[in-house]
């Protein structure tokens, strides 16, 4: 995960630096070109301000100390004043040697900036220049108050190499600094990723210790963002451990319970009992073993639910159970009413829901006079957790005295020995509720006047 994140972040960083470098490079080239144009324009305007004409029409260009390169042949900075056809143009000393592009007259106040244009340098090597030109129309007093217009064009040219050198120096510095910045950012990025993923590595390390049996569960010291993950792992580990222990205990209890009837049968066989006595004893012990097996299977059914299960609608299962109970207790004429909120669901195994509803409703039908009420509503809500559930079953029977509630909830105990049953239904409900980390509350029913059994299941992971 760290390698993938580092690779993705590095690619993004490289792409960003490349785009930033390209944008800065283009911006510098544009600015440098504009600066060169402004510089050549300043040279040209300086010549325009100082150019004059003699009375005989010859042009006069004084020595302008703007840049000494104008006076150095082949220096790379050139000035040319172009006059109308038939008149001698003026050229700076620097134009001696190289072959410059042909110049043409520009209209008054017309400006142009072109380049790079090809030239041949003094040494015969090809080169390029940038050229700025401006057209001027000077007014000359020819005497007697008569003024004439003298058009001319000033060109100032500079070798392209000066701009290229600036761009080259800038690019060297730019990509060098960007490279250093990229290396520093990659290092910081690596450190930040290692620091941010440190809690996750701790979770992986603890999980390996749990897998190897070196630890029983995940620790509680983890960032808030990882708590749902560690809580789920702990719940899964605890659930599997409880399921395993429950299965072992169930098999052990079943084996222990079957030892006595088997021993009785062995004793009767060894004592040479008559066929009638042996048949009677086998029938008795078989019924006993059948009850024991049913008891242990019921106990096993209350364990091993899935920790992460899809939600189940409650009403269809409740209707199926009630239809069967109404047939069994048809002689009593018991009516079961539903008060189930829209969208309320049970998060667990369908068998667990069947056990909960089946045992609670059967117990209510058994003791009710004529009415049973099933209520289902959501429990408290918590962010990022599945909702809890409250199941309530009320009946209009005789109720349970407060001092007998704990006694009735014991395994194998019946509220009334005259009522048929094994006394393990409510115990199975307790085991199921405990396995879902919920609570079972028993008390008087305010709605129907009999007993109320309320199951509260907390919000899940």
From TrEMBL:
Database matches in InterPro entries: HAMP_dom (IPR003660), HATPase_C_sf (IPR036890), HATPase_dom (IPR003594), His_kinase_dom (IPR005467), HisK_dim/P_dom (IPR003661), HisK_dim/P_sf (IPR036097), PhoQ/CarS-like_HATPase (IPR058619), Sig_transdc_His_kin-like_C (IPR004358)
Q: Which residues cross the membrane?
A: 174-193
Specify the Histidine kinase domain's residue ranges: 253-461
Q: Which UniProt keywords apply?
A: ATP-binding, Kinase, Membrane, Nucleotide-binding, Phosphoprotein, Signal, Transferase, Transmembrane, Transmembrane helix, Two-component regulatory system
Q: What is this enzyme's class at the first EC digit?
A: transferase
* EC code(s) of this entry: 2.7.13.3
Gene3D superfamilies named in the record: 1.10.287.130, Histidine kinase-like ATPase, C-terminal domain (3.30.565.10)
Q: Does the keyword Phosphoprotein apply?
A: yes
Q: Which residues form the HAMP domain?
A: 194-245
| Superkingdom of source | Bacteria
A GO term for molecular function: kinase activity
Please name the Pfam families in this protein's record.
Answer: HATPase_c
Task: Give the signal peptide as a residue range, or say none if absent.
Answer: 1-20
Q: Where in the cell is it found?
A: Membrane
Q: Write down what this protein is called.
A: histidine kinase
Q: What is the lineage of its organism?
A: Bacteria, Pseudomonadati, Pseudomonadota, Gammaproteobacteria, Lysobacterales
């Amino acid at each position: 995960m760290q390698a993938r994140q580092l690779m993705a972040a590095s690619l993004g960083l490289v792409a960003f630096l490349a785009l930033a470098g390209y944008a800065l490079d283009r911006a510098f080239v544009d600015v440098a070109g504009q600066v060169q144009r402004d510089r050549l324009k300043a040279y040209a305007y300086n010549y325009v301000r100082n150019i004059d004409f003699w009375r005989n029409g010859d042009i006069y260009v004084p020595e302008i100390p703007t840049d000494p390169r104008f006076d150095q042949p082949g220096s790379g900075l050139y000035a040319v004043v172009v006059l109308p056809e038939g008149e001698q143009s003026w050229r700076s000393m620097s134009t001696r040697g190289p072959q410059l592009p042909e110049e043409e007259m520009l209209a008054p106040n017309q400006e142009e900036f072109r380049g790079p244009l090809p030239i041949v340098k003094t040494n015969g090597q090809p080169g390029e220049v940038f050229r700025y030109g401006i057209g001027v129309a000077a007014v000359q007093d020819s005497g007697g108050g008569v003024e004439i217009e003298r058009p001319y064009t000033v060109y100032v040219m500079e070798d392209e190499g000066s701009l290229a050198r600036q761009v080259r120096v800038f690019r060297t510095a730019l990509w060098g600094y960007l490279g250093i910045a990229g290396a520093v950012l990659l290092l910081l990025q690596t450190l930040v990723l290692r620091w941010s993923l440190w809690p996750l590595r701790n979770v992986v390390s603890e999980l390996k210790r749990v897998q190897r049996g070196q630890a029983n569960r995940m620790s509680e010291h983890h960032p808030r963002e990882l708590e749902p993950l560690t809580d789920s792992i702990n719940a899964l580990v605890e659930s599997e451990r409880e399921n395993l222990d429950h299965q072992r205990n169930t098999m052990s209890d079943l084996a222990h319970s079957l030892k006595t009837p088997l021993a009785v049968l062995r004793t009767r066989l060894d004592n040479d009992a008559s066929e009638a006595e042996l048949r009677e004893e086998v029938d008795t012990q078989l019924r006993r073993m059948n009850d024991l097996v049913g008891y242990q299977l019921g106990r096993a059914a209350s364990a091993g639910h899935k920790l992460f299960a899809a939600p189940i609608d409650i009403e269809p299962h409740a209707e199926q159970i009630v239809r069967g109970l109404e047939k069994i207790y048809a002689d009593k004429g018991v009516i079961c009413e539903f008060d189930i909120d829209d969208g309320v669901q049970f998060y667990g195994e369908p068998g667990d829901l069947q056990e909960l509803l089946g045992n609670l409703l059967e117990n209510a039908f058994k003791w009710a006079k004529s009415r049973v009420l099933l209520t289902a509503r959501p429990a408290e809500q918590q962010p990022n957790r599945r909702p809890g559930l409250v199941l309530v079953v009320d009946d209009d029977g005789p109720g349970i005295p407060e001092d007998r509630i704990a006694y009735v909830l014991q395994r194998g105990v019946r509220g009334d020995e005259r009522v048929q049953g094994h006394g393990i239904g409510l115990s199975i409900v307790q085991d199921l509720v405990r396995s879902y980390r919920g609570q079972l509350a028993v008390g008087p029913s305010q709605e129907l006047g009999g007993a109320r059994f309320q199951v509260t299941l907390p919000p899940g992971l």
